[in-house]
Design a protein that fits this description.
Radius of gyration: 26 Å
Largest sheet: 2 strands, antiparallel
Strand order of the largest sheet: 1-2
Helix content: 40-55%
Number of strands: 2
Shape: elongated
Strand content: 5-15%
Structural class: mainly alpha
Number of helices: 2
Length: 56
């Protein structure tokens, strides 16, 4: 006899939990790496007189 939908969902949740545990990893990022990912060290350009771009 085929398993019921409820039984199939239980099995799917068990399988998914095992896969997620295997994938879960922690990454140790330095402060500099985090700041770089947030984009705080990027150039800021604005338009000046005459429409030319200038670094702020």
């Amino acid at each position: 006899m085929n398993p019921t939908l409820h039984d199939q969902l239980k099995q799917w949740r068990k399988d998914k939990a095992v896969v997620e545990k295997e994938r879960k990893r922690t990454e140790n990022l330095s402060t500099r790496d985090v700041m770089d990912l947030m984009g705080t060290n990027r150039q800021i350009l604005t338009r000046g007189k005459g429409g030319a771009y200038r670094q702020k």
